[in-house]
Amino acid sequence: MKRLFFLLGLLLPLAANAQIQFTPEAGVSIYKKGTENATISPRIGLSVDYFFNRQEKGWGLMSGLYFYQKKDDYTLVYSVYQGKDGFGTIFPTESSDTWKPTNDMTLSKVISDDTYMRRDYLQLPILVKYKWQINDTYAISAAAGGYVAVGISGKHQIDEYTFLMDEKKQEYQRIEYDNPYVLLIYNRFDAGFSSRLSFQAKNLSVNVSYETNLYRRNLMGHDNFISITAGYTF
Question: Which residue in 162, 169, 225, 232 is a FRET match for 193, CA 20 to 30 A apart?
């Protein structure tokens, strides 16, 4: 009990001098993974700043709730070779550096998959923040920490074009899934590193953030996420 009162005695002065700010934000995010093309999506949310003093500067904590998307847009081209045994083999394969089509194989078809995938997330960041108050109007702040996120919806679409060599014709089909998280490489849960630099003029702010995933990078790849948002602080 004595320890509890001692802890409360330390926290109460901090709480009495603390200041909380709320900042609705809106902007865009640029998502890049590996050699895939960069994609742009909206980013909206509400940040919550907790400063340890009423001057709203110096050290503090930042959290909030954000909505953003991760979009994959790429094309895969592969060939199917028919062997004497009648079975088809797809190239390239995971061992394509050492296993090539042999002379007894015949090219039967070429397939091109235009893949589009969108994963929608809600994100909760937890960052340590420091704010420099330049004068009565302008301030600069920097923050770093981590985030956790959960996928709430999405879409997976494949436009598949198949050229049949023997028949000299092309076939087309569209494959759609409402849930991209059923794929083994993706997961509804995401977590990683987050950083942020903000420039504030009175209640208006411009924020630049960089984030990268640290969870299941061996399967999901190395995500690079740059966001630019504008906000108004209450």
Answer: 232
